[in-house]
Every structure is written in C-alpha cells, then in structure tokens.
Amino acid sequence: MTDSRRSPIEIDEVLFRTVGHQLVDTIAQFFDSIKERPVTSGELPKQLQEILGHSPLPEHGIPIEKLLTKVSTILLNHSLFNGHPKFLGYITSSPAPIGALADMLAATVNANVGAQILSPMATEIEKQTVSWLAEFIGVSPNYGGLLVSGGNMANFTGFLAGRTAKAPKRIKEEGLTGLSAPLVFYCSKATHTWAEKAAILFGLGANAIHWIETTADRKINTLVLEQTIKADKEKGYQPFLVVGNAGDVSTGVVDDFRAIADICKTYNLWFHIDGAYGIPAAAVPSQQGLFAGIEEADSLALDPHKWLYSPLEAGCTLVKDPNHLLETFSSHPVYYNFDNTEEEIPFQNFYEYGLQNSRGFRALKVWLALQQVGKSGYVQMIEEDISVSNYLFELASRHPELEAVTQNLSITALRYIPQGYNPSDDYLNNLNEALLNELQKGGQVFLSNALINDQYCLRSCVVNFRTSKKDMEEIIDIVVNEGRRVHAALRQK
To answer: What's the pLDDT tens digit per position in 344-358?
Structure first.
C-alpha cells in the first residue's frame, strides 16, 4: 500500500516551476508590449465562440503545458485591455503588476477570510489594509470595515449598516412590514444605479428613493434636500440616510459634504459617501478642499480596483463605528466555532462585518501595492491622472470640431461637432452615439458615454498609470478623424 495519494489535478514541483516561469515570462512580455497592442479586438460573440471552439467537455485531461499556452494566446489576443494607455472607458483602472503576483500568492494560500481561525495572517493583513485605506483618504484609521467585490457591494454594505442603525430596532425581528412609517432615503440624480438596486433588493422599493435635483454645477442641492426631508417627515415618512457623491460616475463632481453632514446631524440621518471612484483624490493636497467633511461620514465606499490600480476585484467599505457592521451582519449559528474572547486581542471574524461568509483574500494585492508605492507614489499618480485629463479638456477646447463639456477630477466629457453645426442640433446626439460605438469597436481608443444636459457626450476617465499627454494628443486625432468618417456616412443615409 502506498502512503500517498496521486491525484490527476496535482502538478509536480519541476513541471509547476517550468510552466509557471513560462507564464510569468508571457505576462511580463505582455505588460511590456501593451502599448503596441489594440485596446480591444472588437470581435463579436460569434467570432469569439469560433476561436474558442465548440468541443464538449474533455473526457480525459489535457497536458498543462498545452493548456496554458493556448489560454495565454486566446486571452492576450482576443480581450479588451483596461491596462492599455488609451483605455479611458468606465472606471476600471490599469492593474498594478504586483497585483497579478499577489493574486497568485493569495490563491496558493487559499485563505477563507471569513473567520480568523481559518485565515490567521490574512485576517490581520486585511485589518491593516482597511486601516491604511482610511488613513490614506484622510479619515481616522479607527474606521473599521472590510474588502468586498466592488462599488455595488461596498455601497450596499454601508447602506445596510445605516438602515440598521437608524430604523426602529424591531426591524430585525419584524422586517419592514412591522414599521409604522415607510423608510426613505435621499440621493442626487447623479448617483450611481447602486442606490436603486439597494432600494429594490433590500425591500424598500424604488419609491423609497427621493431623488434630489442638482445645482448648475451638478452637486446635490442641499437646500432642496433639507426642504424635502422636512416635507417627508410631515407626511409621515421616516428618513434614514443621505448619499453624497465623491466623484459622480458621469462627470466626477464631488458633493458638498459639510453641508450634507450638517443636515444629517440635524435630522439624525446616516451619512453615506459613495467614493467608489473619486475618494482617493482626497489624499492629493491640491484636491483636499473638494472633500472637506468626509470625516463626518458614517460610512464610505471606495474601490481600490478603480483609482488605486488594484486588479479586479477589490472594493472596500469603511464605517466610523465598526459596531454598526456587527449589529447588521453578525450571526452565530451553532455550527460555527470561531470565537475566542479569552485572548488579549479578540478574534475579528470578517463574516460578521458583511454579506459574505466565505471570502477570498482580496486584501493582499491592495496591501502589497500600498507598500510598493507608498502614499507619495499614489498621490503622484493620481495628480498625473488629473493633469492628463485636464490636458484632454484643453486640447478639446482648442479644436474647432470638438466641444469640451465638463472636467472634474480625472473625468473629461467632450463632443464631436462638425464645422457649421449648431451645438444645440439634435443630430449631434445621434452622431456622437454612433461615433462612440465605432471607437469602442475600432481598438484605437476606448471611451464611454455621459448624458449631460440632454447632450450625448464622449466620456474619458483617466485611472491609468500608463496614460500620457501624448496619448491624449493622439486620442484627439483619432476622435476627429473617426468623427468625420461617421458624420459622412450618416449624411449619406
């Protein structure tokens, strides 16, 4: 009888080292050549399915050398690369190379960071990462929290903590139907769609969102906010939460947090900041005035996989009083043996802080990058992203066929306007939408869209440590040349 088991999924040390080195070489070459590649292959699902093939599930295993060579070729030749210097669409950053190595190491340990006993060192690393993120953006490192998958989950976590804190205590036993007054909360019309998801998924209903109009500069109108809260209380509603935006997704505008905080204190409301995109800019000295008042927030959402350049997935919720997370999410089924209150420092079990029980080791890539770069390195990169975005706005302002529409943080919105056309012409919305579709398929540059004052705009968001001013000059030429071609084609129809 042998004293060991040989499983078909094992890889012996020599082979692992050989294929691992080859894969790292391939990835290193990819990082070095990414600027020369197209941003996207632009292939349609049918084309991609043909490349992948239609074979059934293999009955027998395939050699790992062949598998890794094949999958590297497929992914590195038929993907969209958000690490490309001309990827400026949506808010997915260029991933830090150290994050790729960190994910490999994290997968090797395979820590379940739901309970301290299952992930002793990983738990401590995540605790330190949360503290460092709080310190980085300028709030107390005593804020507690956890790493989550992204902005939706980070905002959901803060939202639920706020609901538990401000709703009547019987909500945990009786649910929403046991409340004497309907819960309502407040967002500006520029707030991300997560707020609508939260209202629907967590039982309040979409009508529980009381949307507040924005001012001319797209900030939440705090005068209207306070008037609406007063009117709602008189109507028998129970307000519980206000959302402030630290960089709205369309234009990057930051709300007036001090004014929101004052209103929340007056009416005993939970103050939540959606900083999934923009709040890392609070660390930049020249931008700190925009974020005055963030220390008043009861909870904040930020995404390291946005402006801290972490590979997906990495979001984070920070809460001023971490006990609100425990009150919201903690449960103690009899089959859990995860507590040890006899220790000098009690165990922290992250399953009690959020929606997940089983949790991957997301913190490692963030923790390593924060140390590799340091605060000063991140401040430098964020400043450069803002400067590059400003440069695009300036170039668009000077070009006779472009209209520079807005610029905030690292987001610039612009439109292509053929010479001789009135900027209010309805045709321009169709033209710019058609132009964006062509740009996204073409592989030279990847932008997204924003609807600003009913005008369809091309939107550029720079959260990319590879993007330079030279890229912006080239993007202007690409947009104008493609705009002329699309305009000519539309006019012929």
So the answer is: 667 899 999 999 999
